[in-house]
Structure formats: C-alpha cells, structure tokens
Amino acid sequence: MTTKKYPIIGKTTSLTVKNTLIWRNNSGNQWSWMLLGVLGYLMIKGKEKISVEEAMRGAISSHAILPEIRRKAAELTKYCDNNEIRRIERIYRFVADQIGYMPDPWDEEYFANALETLYVGAGDCDCKCILLATLLRANGFKVAIDLIPEHVLVEVYVTADYVDQMPSGCRRPDPESGGEWILLESTAVGAEIGWVSNELFETYLSRGRETRFEI
After folding, report:
1. Are 107 and 25 a contacting pair, CB within 8 Å?
2. For residue 95, with 0-12 CB atoms within 10 Å meaning exposed, 13-18 middle and 19 or more buried, which class applies?
3. Could you tell me if 182 and 156 are in contact, meaning their C-beta atoms sit under 8 angstroms apart?
4. What confidence tens digit (pLDDT) does each residue in 59-109 have?
5. Which of 113, 139, 102 is nearest to 27 (CA)?
6. How far apart are CA 53 and CA 193, in angstroms?
7. Quick check: helix, strand or coil at residue 193?
8. Collapsing DSSP states into helix, strand and coil, what is residue 148?
9. Domain spans of the chain?
10. What CATH number does the domain located at 2-214 have?
11. Other C-beta atoms lying within 10 Å of the C-beta of residue 160
C-alpha cells in the first residue's frame, strides 16, 4: 500500500489518498469474473474498434437502468430526504471509500461495467468512475465524464435549488440553468465532493471541454 499527499484546492491542509489493492476471501471468484469480462471485451474489441467514449458511455447508459443498480443507488440514498447534495455525498463516499483500487489485469485497458466492479469490490480509475457515474445516473442525476491523461474524473450536475449547499471545491457553473457541475475524484479515499489534486485540476482546465462528454 502506498500513500500520496495532495494539497486541497483553496485550503492549507492535505489529504492522504490511499492506492490500495483490495483482496477478499473469494479472490479466485473475483479473477474468474474479471477474466470472463476481459475475454468478452477483447472479443468485441477484435471485431470492432470502439473509442474510450463509446465504451464508457455504453457501460454507464446500459447499466444505469438495471434493477440491481437502481436498488443499490436507492439503498445508498435511503435516508437523504431527497436532498441532492446528501445523495451525491452518499454515493460518492461509497465508491471512493469502499470500492478499492485495482489495476487492469495484464495491463490491458478494460472498462468494467458497474455490476462487475460491485462484485469484485475494486477497480482502477475508469472502472470506479463508471460505477460512480452509473449509480448517480440511476439515482436521477445528470453526469459527465472528463478524460485527462492517465486519469478519469466524473462531473455531476446540481440544480439551482441546491447550489448554495454545495461545498467549496472544483465547480463549473451552468449559466443557462443556474445549476452547477461539480467534479468527483473516485480514487480519493476520504475526500469531500469537489476535491481534486492541484495537478489534476490544472490538467482538467488545460484540456478544455474536448475530452468531456455528458451522459
């Protein structure tokens, strides 16, 4: 296990981010499940080239409507009184803190869907982002994916009624609606919604919207 120290934007404190490889007692089943998924993905990839956007968009859109995912999203937000900020926080806390970090097998880029990542209990940044975005979509939120070099971030839309309740952090106003988009770093254990490292934030700003797509 390694730890990194990242400064929090706008604050003088620091946050410890743990990159932890999560193993469970049924690790054999984990790898069997992941192996089947990777083999299926490679078969599809071999027949038809798909972009990262297509792969992630497909995984999120197709699974956000599944009963299992809807039940999980509803379970996580059961006591949030339909408050948008509290619902986002509960779903984010689950993915960031309880879903561990695990690199793709064999260094082959693989976009696990939400059910796979839930079953395994771990994934790399894109797999955790897919899970986070899928749960948020299943709970009624608009989401976007930001592709930056070697990393992925999620954005979630907060309506104008709840903007005043949002924590300080990386936010992007939507002038047309009066709401705001807030960045979510799925691999930052213990972070608040809206937190990303200075390095990631600078990269996000410099890349512009060409690497961003809404779902």
Report:
1. no
2. buried
3. yes
4. 999 999 999 999 999 999 999 999 999 999 999 999 999 999 998 876 778
5. 102
6. 24
7. coil
8. strand
9. 2-214
10. 3.10.620
11. 11
How many residues does this entry show for the chain?
Answer: 215
User: Between β-strands 143-148 and 212-214, what pairing exists: parallel, antiparallel or unpaired?
Assistant: antiparallel
pTM of the model: 0.78
Instruction: Extract the tokens encoding 173.
Output: 């106003």
> H or E element: which one contains 116?
helix 114-120
Hey, what amino acid is at 82? N
- Cβ burial of 53 (10 Å; 0-12, 13-18, 19+) is middle
pLDDT tens-digit series, residues 175-214: 999 999 999 999 999 999 999 988 888 888 776 556 889 9
**What pLDDT digit, counting tens, does each position of 100-156 carry?**
999 887 677 889 999 999 999 999 999 999 999 999 999 999 999 999 888 999 999
